Structures
1.
Amino acid sequence: MSELLRVENLVKHFAVDQGVVASHLGKKVHAVDGVSFSVNKGETLGLVGESGCGKSTTGRCIIRLLEPSAGSITFDGTDVRSLRGKALQSFRRDVQFIFQDPYASLNPRMTIGEIVSEPMVVHRIGTPATRRTRAKELLDVVGLNPEHINRYPHEFSGGQRQRIGIARALALNPRLLICDEPVSALDVSIQAQVINLLDELQDRFELTYVFIAHDLSVVRHISDRVAVMYLGKIVEVGGWLGLYDQPHHPYTQSLLSAVPVPDPDKQRSRERIILEGDVPSPIDPPTGCRFHTRCPIAQDICTATEPELREVADGHEAACHFAKPFPITAEAPAAVAGEGAVAG
Amino acid sequence: MALLEVTGLRTQFFTRDGVVKAVDGVSFELEQGKTLAIVGESGSGKSVTALSLMRLIQEPQGRVVEGGVNLGGQDVLKMSDTAIRAMRGNRIAMIFQDPMTSLNPVFRVGYQIGEALRVHKGMNRKRAFDRAVEMLDLVGIPNAAHRAKDYPHQFSGGMRQRAMIAMALACDPDILIADEPTTALDVTIQAQILELMVELQQREGTAIIMITHDLGVVADMANDVMVMYGGKQVEYGVADDVFYRPLHPYTWGLLDSLPRHDISAKGELCPIKGQPPSLIDIPSGCAFHPRCPYAKEICRTTVPALVEIEPGHSSACHFSGDPAFRRDQVACSADMEAN
Ligand SMILES: Nc1ncnc2c1ncn2[C@@H]1O[C@H](COP(=O)(O)OP(=O)(O)OP(=O)(O)O)[C@@H](O)[C@H]1O
Ligand SMILES: Nc1ncnc2c1ncn2[C@@H]1O[C@H](COP(=O)(O)OP(=O)(O)O)[C@@H](O)[C@H]1O
Ligand code: SF4
Ligand code: SF4
Ligand SMILES: [Mg+2]
Ligand SMILES: [Mg+2]
């Protein structure tokens, strides 16, 4: 498999300039602090972590919505940060973004036909007539009725608006989609519709996804590989099965053990690691291992020396001085809730 | 006798666009020390059910049009306003998804927690504040005596949620209603808050009504589960029955829509097609029929009643009583239709 995207030592710091405590003036928010990963063609890389860990900032740096403070981003062999003119135009066609909020991300004064055609207008592709045909085709692709092309966003539900956003992202035949929490605002039944749609589109159009979300079950379902972030760093990365069944980093282990599963027996018997306290501020991240203030197994070395990502199993890396597998029990679907309708 | 008994609760809002039948015939019981989870998608009537119990529906736009809410022998719906104020916060307390709806930004946290104690328990300022500090300590706020003097904005999201729980529990209520208390929080913080609620419940014998759309949280917390759809109760029973032997096609659909990380194989997701109804224009017959893969003619014409199918386990589907009516994996067409 060939590599489509490579991110190396990505750093993004924001200056703290206003509205905060005086002692923070002149300091920086370490939003992303040395993140590296690569994504192969046709693959989905999941980026998961708690609020504020730097997922969206990473995504925004990749598409050049934000200027990185340091590091390199390579798309299909070319350095994204140096792109200018025609090459930049073509990059902007190839890489599209899907936003979390299906409400805020669509212009309420445009019809959905105009919304879906807009990228073609911006990139001066086609005539009004061909764009309209293409817009109808795209609506059909995402499971909306093409006849509704003249309706406005407020006439659609949350799940439908997310489909409109997906149709717009597909308009220019992109190769890479960065999906930032695309299903987080949706109800479970609708969330499942959109996940299945993304899955299907990936096969149909040979798309590559970077899928950002905080819901661990959703990320596992959609991803081939998963990277777990904590305070601006990747703490663990690996194939979906290994990462979820044999997490090696104490943070991944606690995250997984904290997600309640829809099975009362399992909930009753689960071994849970309850982390204490909150995520520290990214303005003054802890020294050494950033997780040491909450880590249940931290030692002296953890405050002094930062652990590097190192291979713990095939294609599976963790950044912990004491990384070791902690099997989170998962079993065959035999015990899945309710095979039959009635007691029997 | 149950601590709380709700029968045939119906709550409506009268809007320009028509009558919103937000809660349409809901009945349940709650025992001391137990947790009832109310689960359903957004707009299914969960919050309005809770607000109705607390008599917090704003009239005249909204009104409880029918039903009974029996709290220890008294009908809450018939209580005087004075009696209601004495009940709220004291016998039944509520916590919300957004703590800032209960916390006032201009008062210190400790003072606000103490307020309920001054009003309901007649404590003086000093005693109320001391008790507030105790409560903050109990819910795990480090350095509580000091932090009680902070304003809400100086707390993190998780700490505000804890402060709100401290406030709700200060008067030692019989019933705690928690409306999506952890939905806005990260999972590690959610785990802390849920554990705290269970701990307090075990210590004080508080009964909890847990409103959530997260079936994982339900499995974690609930003794009993009520599933709502379109303002109606579609399934009701003890948690194990509802999870392991669900009866209603909507419950099946919810369970089949969930990606699971606790099962090794990656299963197919079977979404429910279409979208939830508007409560102004509820479909005829069974409100779920436009989305239900099992719907027959009768579903379009006749509203199914909530029927007890096995002891303590009821469902509102015309076919739930038929032993041959089973959850059919083939019904999962994974279809892409959104309309
Ligand atoms: N423009 C900005 N100025 C200052 N700080 C910022 C800015 N954008 C993001 N941050 C900070 O950078 C950190 C990472 O933010 P980011 O939005 O990437 O988090 P995230 O992982 O996407 O979180 P969430 O799950 O809440 O979306 C946070 O501490 C955030 O407050
Ligand atoms: N104050 C109000 N005025 C009019 N309609 C309302 C009001 N509050 C709630 N509703 C409607 O009642 C229905 C149920 O809402 P709610 O109980 O909040 O749902 P949820 O299950 O998400 O908590 C929804 O259709 C909602 O729009
Ligand atoms: S390096 Fe130390 S503090 Fe960090 S996760 Fe490993 S054990 Fe915990
Ligand atoms: S009554 Fe009919 S439409 Fe309603 S859930 Fe049962 S089968 Fe489906
Ligand atoms: Mg984000
Ligand atoms: Mg609600």
2.
Amino acid sequence: MPNEKHDVIIIGAGVVGCLTARALSRYRLKVLLLEKASDVGTGASKANTAIVHAGYDPTPGTNKAKFNVAGNAMWDQLAGELNFPFERRGDYVVAIGPEELPILDELWERGKKNGVLGMKMISADEMRRREPNINSQVSGALWVSTGGICDPFAVVAAAAENAVMNSVELMLETEALDFVKEGRRLVGVVTNRGTFPCRWVINCAGLYSDVIMRQAGLETDFKITPRKGEYYVFDRAKVSINNVLFPVPTPISKGIMVTTTVHGNTIAGPTAHNIKDKEDTSVTPEGLEEVFAGAKKLLPSLDKGDVIAVFAGLRSSGSTGDFVMEVPREVEGFVNLAGIESPGLTSAPAIAQWVVDALWEHGPKLEEKPDWDPIRPPRPRFRDLSPEEQTLLIYSNSAYGRIVCRCETVTEGEIVAEVHTPVPARTYDGIKRRTRLGMGRCQGGFDTPRVIEILARELRILPTKVTKKGPGSELLTRPAKVQGGCHA
Amino acid sequence: MPEKKCDVVVIGSGPAGLAAAIAAKERGAEDVLIIERGEELGGILIQCIHTGFGLEIFQEDLTGPEYAQRFIDRVEGLGVETMLGTMVLDITPARRLYAIQWGRLLEIEARAIVLAMGCRERSRGALAIPGTRPAGIYTAGTAQRFIEIEGYMPGERFAILGSGDIGMIMARRLVFEGARVERMVEVLPYVGGLVRNYVQCLVDYDIPLQLQHTVIDVKGRDRVEAVVSAQVDDNFQPIPGSEETIPCDTLLLSVGLIPENELSKKAGVELDPLTGGPYVDETMQTNVPGIFAAGNVVHVYDLADWVTEAGYLAGRHAGEYAIHQRRGSERKLRVIAGDNVHHVLPHVLDPLSLERGPQELQLRVQWPVEAPVWVNVEANGKLVKRKTERYVRPSEMIRIKLPPEDHGKIVGAKELSVRVEEKS
Ligand SMILES: Cc1cc2nc3c(=O)[nH]c(=O)nc-3n(C[C@H](O)[C@H](O)[C@H](O)COP(=O)(O)OP(=O)(O)OC[C@H]3O[C@@H](n4cnc5c(N)ncnc54)[C@H](O)[C@@H]3O)c2cc1C
Ligand SMILES: Cc1cc2nc3c(=O)[nH]c(=O)nc-3n(C[C@H](O)[C@H](O)[C@H](O)COP(=O)(O)OP(=O)(O)OC[C@H]3O[C@@H](n4cnc5c(N)ncnc54)[C@H](O)[C@@H]3O)c2cc1C
């Protein structure tokens, strides 16, 4: 085998894989993080509701309940160390009409059993005062001050970056295809880029975690079903809902909610429908209708005319209904994480810690690195700076004075910086997710030609090789025959 | 402390901005400044390398850059100052501007401002088209920019949603480039853009147009592989069974333009929800004294020549305002959109303005009438002026002039209303 042996190989660079890599980077271990896509965090971790749940929802006693509440408590420190947007602004479960009111009591009870802090019942009048646009039929609400919101992609990118800063190796466009085994022990991972020997494998493959389980040799009928969630995004200039509003939950989901994001846009969603295809993140007319109807139940004044984007994400819904977190007996050298659906984002920091603990117990001796640096320094975001700070930034590098995306005020300096980080953006979507460029009203109409130019220059490739999201998604096809010649 | 003081600051250098700067200078304003975020003057015209510009003003058939150059030469000849690569970030109601110029922030105080920021294209998100989100979905204007300015093709096999002018012009351009345009689909029962463009760009190149059709699905994971079109009923709902898969690698959108007014709002300028642009009076002044507006930022025009005229009007009055620092008359007649009128400009009109010269009303109809019609202007229910048109279409702006002699007919009225009726 050509490759040096890794102590740990993590399969999948979603929020779970990246936070796990970062947690392990604290120890003297050779860690390799594999991701089949062209960027980290392009699975469920980028297309979700971005809520750091308080924990009143999961059934008491489950992994979901336990890791939700434990995970929730870790977010302030995490956001402080990794410098991503996070706001613990609290959330509301809103009962509409008297018949929904008793469900709030159930949630309260469940929350107490799960150890949730900061719960308070508020009256209909109080709810109307706090959210003037709320449906006038509101009958009461559960207010939970420990709920939060974040920029989920920023969490993944920052965690991956911090891991790489601390010597984790990240390989993108590298898919785990099979394992090398010695008896029951996994001793290597076979990928499209060669075979990598290792001592431990951690399954963080999201929708494909069931496939990985079987490849590793687990005999199980455990199955992941993709469950689609669709969303509307509203124009910040037109709709400003400053709250996180849940309806009362149904047996299979938390329902269609309306929430502000850390960037001030309002989003509505998600639906919850089981589908077959693990790659099908398309948006459907029926799904969008359902989102709109559900959102209007909370906020009747919402207008479709103010929508600027739609998207969908896939939950990895496991057949056991709970997070699977195990160091199975049948296979050695394997830590299995599967069925990490909602509240998986919230729970991810606690899940990562659980992996560390599991390795302590079963694995190699973990030795702390004295030079481990938990801080991922923030990069300047031009739009958030004061005019004085902007002037200084421009003075240090004039590329910060060139605005590429006018709706979200993103500068060339920010784009170039993202191409040269430990976890670089190499695609249009990679830039978009990191800077919010193209996410405003014009949805990239103005910036796309400029971003292609910058990516081509910085990556030293032809403009026709610049992609939206990796090989196969090239944005341009060939030089035009009749050259413009219009530089009048 | 502002670093710079000007009589008139014009934001944007498309045909509206260029004309406004020329007129302000000619009216006597001394320091006239054009601020343009692009790297050259000319606005959208720079990427419109086809002909069709200047027929009204110069009686010549010019390309966009040629047309723009005529005004750029005058701007330069008159000594108008220009700042390129400079983007205005904020304006206050007291006419202070904050801009960023290749690496530095500027603060400018203006005695008058002309907003001439043009418009942007409606995107896929605004339409909420279902399906996947692969590479290969562009607005027609972005595709135009790729080909004409960057020199690259954004695809080889196209479907086009919407039949706006830019979409039709691009359809022909793509054929010139050796690409295939499989189909254009339009949700309305009539063409969105000018008939002239329909004939010269689609009919002449055998590009099929399907009216009352829309795109209901996009397929393809990394790059567009196909779109699904369907016929729609009178409520624009897809008719089941009419779906058709059109293989293509690119979907172009030509589904409307939206005036670019985020900046105007910051200055306290009130917008008309029907046009998406500011409420203006006959001098193109907005509700904020000293702030004027012209061109596509006010309402979307179909001909750049009319944009130029609107720019002259706004610039002249901005120059006037800069010199005298006073608002015109407060006597304002409201101008109301009546039957089959989508909107009419100006929103208010000083009846005395007719003493100074003819005043033009600009309107668009709500639905097409392919038969002779009357365009009636009425004051308090009494006919003031009427004009006949052989047909009316939403894509073609209608202009009607009130001559000075009509002054007497409107002087006591509270409002003017405009309606379009079929001649019987
Ligand atoms: C619609 C929706 C809404 C949600 N809302 C919330 C919420 O508000 N709050 C909350 O806490 N949680 C929420 N969740 C859940 C949360 O998003 C997920 O639990 C979390 O993102 C899971 O992270 P992950 O790393 O396990 O999976 P993913 O992010 O899917 O990452 C798995 C990664 O593994 C890679 N991979 C797979 N197979 C291979 C292979 N063979 N080789 C290499 N790489 C591979 C994939 O490409 C992917 O990048 C929501 C989920 C959805 C879908
Ligand atoms: C994408 C597109 C393609 C078109 N193609 C055609 C065509 O092929 N044929 C045709 O006849 N008509 C076309 N038109 C319409 C026609 O060109 C317009 O009617 C005309 O150019 C409008 O002139 P304008 O001056 O109002 O705006 P524009 O020409 O759009 O000029 C506005 C200018 O303002 C600048 N600006 C905006 N905001 C700021 C700011 N904050 N700070 C500084 N500068 C700013 C912009 O960079 C731009 O240069 C097109 C329009 C668009 C939007």
